[in-house]
Amino acid sequence: MTPPSYSPAELMIINAARLLQNGDVVFVGVGQPNLACNLAKRTHAPDLVMIYEAGVIGAEPARLPLSIGDPTLVSGALSVVSMYDIFTNYLQRGNVDVGFLGGAQIDRFGNINATQIGPDYGRPKVRLPGSGGAQEIAAWANRCYIMTPHQKRRFPEKVDFMTSAGYLDGKGGREKAGLRGKGPVAVVTDLGILEPDETGELVLTALHPGKSVQEAIDNTGWTLKVAASPRTTPGVGRKELKILREDLDPAGIYLKAGS
Amino acid sequence: MKKLMPLSKAISENVQDGDTLYAAGFTHLIPFAAGHEIIRQHKHDLVLARATPDLIYDQLVAAGCARKVIFSYMGNPGVGSLRIVRAEIEAGRLDWEEYSHFGMISRLQAGAAGLPFMPMNQTAATDLERSNPLIRRVSDPYSGKEVVVVPALCPDVAIVHVQRADREGNAHLWGIVGEQKEVAFAAKRLILTAEEIVDQAIIRSDPNRTLIPGFIVSAVCHVPFASHPSYAQGYYDRDNDFYLKWDKISESSSAVRSYLDEWVYGVKDRGEYWKKLGPAVHRRLKVKPRPSAVVNYGAY
Questions:
Q1: Average pLDDT over residues A20-46
Q2: SS3 B81
Q3: Chain B contact for A85 (CB, 8 A cutoff)
Q4: Buried b or exposed e, range A116-149, using 16+ CB within 10 angstroms
């Protein structure tokens, strides 16, 4: 049987889903992270607890949520709390295992920019949405995953503005600031997976089937280091695609992105 | 004191030009009807505070009501860019002040609790702290370590939409409760709009669901469907089609002008607006009931 065809978004979502462990408490974002979490819950991680920054704990959305505060997140959830509670009792206190992050720029040390393009804060060249919950999720979730298409402009050597901290300027930066979370432990792209080395620098540790090291190097804005023998991620499964396409996002709203 | 009044009166009596205004609701229960009434009354120089400015502030900014925004995430939720606020900021025509969600909510929590500021743990991402002089540090007097602090936010006026309230403003709300309670207690004046005005006996039947007590409310207004295109849990769905449509409308200032002419200036109130939306939209946004199990408080 020929391997199934899939979009770059589907490839990233499926690989991000595989990183989640059964029983994880996950701070979910709308869009692709939401699909990754719901896919994991329907495959290898049925006991995943999904938390949304709007204050919903243990959501079991019956339809695809189209905003972070979609009413489908509330009906049938375990609990709904205020935003102050979600950011204090849940996140700051250390009750969240996994956070998903994204941004316009991710740099060599996993720092993220979701605020603005251009060096001068008072005069943004391009104004982006800003932190939302990201600044604190990056600091206090036990571990963070980033999903992003692998493009040079998205992977600069240094972010224009640090909305959320990765490993700052290298080793020990997070510990010095007293952060409780481990930071961005994996960046899933449509070419492969980057993970921090012992200095906090993101290196290429895995490639998706059919992708090359050279492609990854060419699409990264710093001199990308490559692990001694990068692994190949397991092929995309028909079952995973079926759940995504038939159950979770039948209209293809988030699955078609990046095609 | 009679608090139940038409929305137009509540806005004219409680919203002054130059006020700092907080229209509450994290995606849910956004008080669009009140936003439109503020536009109709040509209020101006407002400082618009909201964690997520959303379409309501895009429209207020487009209508020339604002001089500044205070926010923590500026987007069209689930769709993309919040075009008008973004364009005004990029053009240098609109002043802004920015926090993370936690910073913004902590400001409200301090205001609600009557405290001067609120501490937060460090995040090591210090660019925002360097860009906003109101985000500061103090040392924890117990451990000596530094914590980040933000000042209390006490808006001159807040607007909160609820599912049901009595004539005195004792209010039940459920579903996503975002920052509504904190905003209500932090504000100097508080306008409530409600899907339903109910007998106080209904409120008293479920006191745990009362997030806002009437005695902190300045005005309460009966405004069904006040949140459209946002939603009211259990009453009507979010109109995602409109959120997508606004993405197109807000690309051109003439389309925005026509929208405001037709849907804000061109209607007298929310009743007329809802009727104008028509039966097809009403049907599309209808939700099937899913009641909770009954809670027994016991008769003592």
A1: 94
A2: strand
A3: no
A4: bbeeebeebeebbbbbbbbbbbbbbbbbbbbbbe
The pLDDT, as a whole number, for residue A176 is 85
Quick one: three-class SS letters along B132-151? Answer: CCCCEEEECCCCCCEEEEEE
Residue spans per domain, chain A: 8-248
Q: Which chain B residues have a beta carbon less than 8 Å from that of A54?
A: 26-28, 176, 178
Note the pLDDT tens digit of each residue in A129-146: 999 999 999 999 999 999
Q: What is the pLDDT of residues B218-228, one digit of tens each?
A: 999 999 999 99
Q: Which of A53, A136, A201, A240 is catalytic?
A: A53
Task: Give yes or no for A179 touching B (CB within 8 A).
Answer: yes
How many angstroms separate the CA atoms of B276 and B270, rounded?
10
Minimum CA–CA partner of B97 in chain A: A122
Q: Do B176 and A174 touch (CB under 8 A)?
A: no
CB spacing of B176 vs A55 below 8 angstroms: yes
> Is domain A8-248 given the CATH code 1.50.40.10 in the classification?
no
Which of A173-177, A189-193, B84-88, B160-164 is least confident? A173-177
Instruction: Identify the three-state secondary structure at position B203.
Output: helix
Tokens at residue A107, please? 């740099």
Distance CA B14, CA B16 (A): 6
The ipTM of this complex is 0.97
Of A76, A92, A165, nearest to B124 by CB-CB distance is A165
Q: Residue B100: what residue type?
A: S
Read off the DSSP letter of residue A152. Answer: G
Supply φ then ψ for residue B299, to 5 degrees: -100, 115
Domains and CATH numbers, chain B: 7-98+155-285 (3.40.1080.10), 117-151 (no CATH)
| Phi, psi torsion values for B267, nearest 5 degrees | -120, 155
From the number of C-beta atoms within 10 Å of its C-beta (0-12, 13-18, 19+), residue B279 rates as: exposed
Rg (CA), chain A: 18
> What part of B 54-93 touches A (C-beta under 8 Å)?
71-75, 77-78, 81-82, 86, 89-90, 92
A175 is known as an active-site residue: no
Burial class (CB in 10 A: 0-12, 13-18, 19+), B212: buried
CA distance B106 to chain A (A): 7
> Contacts of residue A71 in chain B, CB cutoff 8 Å?
28, 175-176, 231, 233, 237-238, 287
Q: What is the DSSP string of B235-257?
A: TB---HHHHHHHHHHTT-HHHHH
Give the residue from chain A lying closest to B287, CA to CA: A71
* Binary contact (A82, B182; C-beta < 8 A): yes
* pTM for this entry: 0.96
